[in-house]
Amino acid sequence: MAFPVRLVAVVAVLVSAGAGAEGYELGAAQQRAEAVLGRMTQAEKLSLVRGGLGAPWGGRPKPQGSVGSAGYVAGIPRLGIPALQETDAELGIANPGNIRPGDTATAMPSDLALASTWDLGIARRQGAAVGAEARAKGFNVLLGGAVNLIRDPRGGRDFEYFSEDPLLAGLMAGAAIDGVQSRHVLSTIKHFALNDQETDRVALDARIDRAAARESDLLAFEIGIEQGRPGAVMCAYNEVNGVYSCENDWLLDRVLKADWRYPGFVMSDWGAVHSTIRSAVAGLDQESGDELDTQNFFESLGRSVAEGKVPQTRLDDMARRILTSIFTHGLAEEVASDPADSASSEESALAIEREGAVLLKNEGLLPLPTNVRRLLVVGAHADRGVPSGGGSSQVVPRGGIAFSERVGRNRAMIFDPSSPLDAIRRQFPHALVDYDDGRFPGRAANAARWADAVILFADQWRTEGIDAPSLSLPGGQDTLMETVARANPHSVVVLETGGPVLMPWLDETAAVVEAWYPGQKGGEAIAEFLSGAVNPSGRLPLTFPRSEAQLPHPTIQGDPTGAPIGPVGRGGHYDRTFVAQYGEGAEVGYKWYFERGEQPLFPFGFGLSYTTFGLRSLSASADGARVTVRATVWNSGARAGVATPEFYVSGPAGANIPLRLAGWSRVDLAPGKERDVSASVDPRLLATFDEGARRWRIRGGDYRITAGFDVERREAATAVHLDGAELPP
Ligand code: BGC
Questions:
Q1: Which ligand 1 atom is the nearest neighbour of the CA of 188?
Q2: In this predicted model, what pLDDT tens digit does every residue of 261-305 receive, in sequence order?
Q3: Contact, 388 vs 454, CB < 8 A?
Q4: The CATH number fitting domain 352-531, selected from 3.30.450.20, 3.20.20.140, 3.40.50.1700, 1.25.40.80
Q5: Relative to the CA of 392, which ligand 1 atom is closest?
Q6: What distance separates the 2 farthest-apart alpha carbons in the chain?
Q7: Which residues form the pocket of ligand 1, taking CB atoms under 6 Å from any ligand atom?
């Protein structure tokens, strides 16, 4: 089932419960896989389940035939099976360690920027652009679809993830995956599951109530898989309830393959396999980067099968699943794919940032009048470029790295070549635009006094392998923001961060924009935002706390100083394994705040516009377990803009559904115009999971439906009656 993209005025968020494998057009691919499997030797089956590094390693050059990337699986030419050329590509095609000398790619805005669009069409477009670039570079497997729920706003990889809400995360990731695969490139969805923090990620045992996991983290994966139909699922480094993800029978065999009827294959994260037998039996289908695991799947799997420790049927199932995905996604075909068009990829990057930047505060300062005379731009290397996040998703941007700043001993913060200062100068051709690097707050404040308005940039680096030590802006930037904003009240702060930050200076500034990591057209998009050439429409996909004390875990669990980066594969269990108790269960993000009556700094779903919107005539009707909500939304301001009414549901007494995002619409509205919008609610959002019975259960009663423009500003309410019902998992 293809997801209805943004075609018409009304966008319905529609997900069918438990669609599982039903939506896949698998028949022909499965038959072909079966036929090929029948012709395979045992050695060929074993070679298909063995993934190695696609890069030079330990003195050996990159494997022959490898394009040069994170992973490589040799092909079987006699059977027409192509090699799998696997690259990281969450935010564009990565080139770690310059394996492909000089190769660059479009650096997309972070997934938080993409998620802030709440626009499935643009997520699909991002995926298609990245997929086309991958295909043109010779890659056919993209290690993308990072859909882990953002449980902690300090997470090192939050910029690669989408949301704290499973519906928003699952739909957006699914749309991006669908876009990638529309270019005959197979995409993963990752990291399955509960790899929700980086601190000690390889030694962490994420403990959570199973039903709560099904209603939160796993629901994001379930929806992402239904919508995107990824060819592979990447299992994670961490343990879940005492068992490593890549040997976790409950996760792989029961939830993914039995309950969700997932027909693709499970590949390991790099260095995440600890035992061949345990992994093979639990449902791992392909080892990745086997040089990093002390137990080589390929070598020992053959032995284990011969000794009867792993059934032959399991090895056949692994090969069958990999073949099925290869055939389903056209990897074995010579596809006349469009040549990668860098101009259109960059257009996509620009479009995402235009829609994804979020206006958090505006006391009449923005848009800046185009006839403004003197502007001062301050800080965050805004004269050179825009920051990006680190780790395996790091892209070497087309046009080259603008600037890089060393972080610690061996890491670097990379700036994409899109100077906000230059773009602002172009947007305001009649203004004198000066720049101060912000190193000395007093000097910047003096310069600020002469400006009609000040544009203060602040950044914060995040990277895979390490969580942010706190939510505060690093490097004295809070002092800079405060000192300059006090000197000139016409100050706007533009945040380029990998997640929420605290804003002790908020009252001093007239406006705040969250631009995230804005990608390689970020400077242009930010300038358009400031001038009003673009009317802001982004909405927060996660809550901004007032302080870390509001979080379920005021301090990140684990040892932040001992956080290992990247893959390690020492085999067996780590001595240092520690338990991270996710006692908050499914109460992630805004649900946690709501239950406690806590007021965040900025709520989930929040975002301002240069116009204003109203909402009325909310109604809800039920057809069995399928609820449809309707409302009328109108533009009450003076300029055209995009309204995103959000629908929420709460269950009747005893249903244990305090508040959940149930759907949204996204409509362009001219001033004074109104539209009817509707959304169809996924029945799983009206249910709780019964792990014993492996069923979703809807409790009979009156469900409260609310609608508004963020989770706190719900301005209309209605109710709908549902009879009790059960749904398959
Ligand atoms: C990351 C994955 C990535 C893989 C290959 C791992 O360390 O967790 O997200 O796809 O490396 O680079």
A1: 10
A2: 999 999 999 999 989 999 999 999 999 999 988 778 888 999 999
A3: no
A4: 3.40.50.1700
A5: 12
A6: 80
A7: 70, 88, 143, 190-191, 269-270, 392, 566-567
